[in-house]
C-alpha cells in the first residue's frame, strides 16, 4: 500500500482537492510508519526465535503483533491530525514542473519528530536485537566447538 499511495500521489495531487491531498498525505505517512513498525516487530520475532527459544509462549501473539503493527502508526497519525490537520498538504518541489506536486507533511518539525525520530528509534531497536542475536549465535557456535573438542579427545 505504501508503494501504491506513493506512486499515485502526484496524480491525485493534480486534482487540486485539499481534502484528497490531506488524505493521501496521511495514508502515505501511515503506511510508511507501518512499514517501519513491522520491521521492528520482525526483529523482536527474530530475537524470540533465536535467543529465547524455549518457554516462550505469548498468548494471542499474532493479534498483539497486528495491534502493534497497525495501531502504533495509527496513534501517531491521529496525534498529528488532532494537533493540526494542516500539517498535511500539497508541497510543490518545483514551479517549473507541474507534476512535481506531492502531498506530504508540510511542517519540518512534525516531519522530524514523526518520521525521522520514529525511524531512528526503530533503527536502534533493530540494531540492538541484531547484536543480541549475533552474540547468541556466536556463543552457541563457541559452545558447540568446545563440546566437539571434548568428545574428540
UniProtKB/TrEMBL annotation:
The chain crosses the membrane at residues 20-41, 61-83, 110-135. This is AGRG4 protein. It is found in: Membrane. Its main location: membrane. InterPro entries: GPCR_2-like_7TM, GPCR_2_secretin-like. Residues 1-153 form the G-protein coupled receptors family 2 profile domain. GO terms for molecular function: G protein-coupled receptor activity. It comes from the Eukaryota. It comes from Alaudala cheleensis. It is a multi-pass membrane protein. GO terms for cellular component: plasma membrane. The keyword Cell membrane does not apply.
Amino acid at each position: 500500500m505504501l508503494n501504491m499511495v506513493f506512486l499515485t500521489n502526484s496524480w491525485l495531487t493534480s486534482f487540486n482537492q485539499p481534502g484528497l491531498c490531506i488524505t493521501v498525505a496521511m495514508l502515505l505517512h501511515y503506511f510508511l510508519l507501518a512499514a517501519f513498525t513491522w520491521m521492528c516487530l520482525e526483529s523482536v520475532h527474530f530475537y524470540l526465535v533465536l535467543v529465547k527459544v524455549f518457554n516462550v509462549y505469548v498468548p494471542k501473539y499474532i493479534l498483539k503483533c497486528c495491534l502493534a503493527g497497525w495501531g502504533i502508526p495509527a496513534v501517531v497519525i491521529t496525534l498529528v491530525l488532532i494537533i493540526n490537520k494542516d500539517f498535511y498538504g500539497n508541497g510543490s518541489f518545483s514551479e517549473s514542473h507541474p507534476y512535481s506536486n506531492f502531498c506530504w507533511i508540510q511542517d519540518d518539525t512534525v516531519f522530524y519528530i514523526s518520521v525521522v525520530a520514529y525511524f531512528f528509534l526503530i533503527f536502534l531497536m533493530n540494531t540492538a536485537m541484531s547484536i543480541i542475536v549475533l552474540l547468541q549465535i556466536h556463543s552457541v557456535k563457541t559452545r558447540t566447538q568446545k563440546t566437539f573438542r571434548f568428545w574428540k579427545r
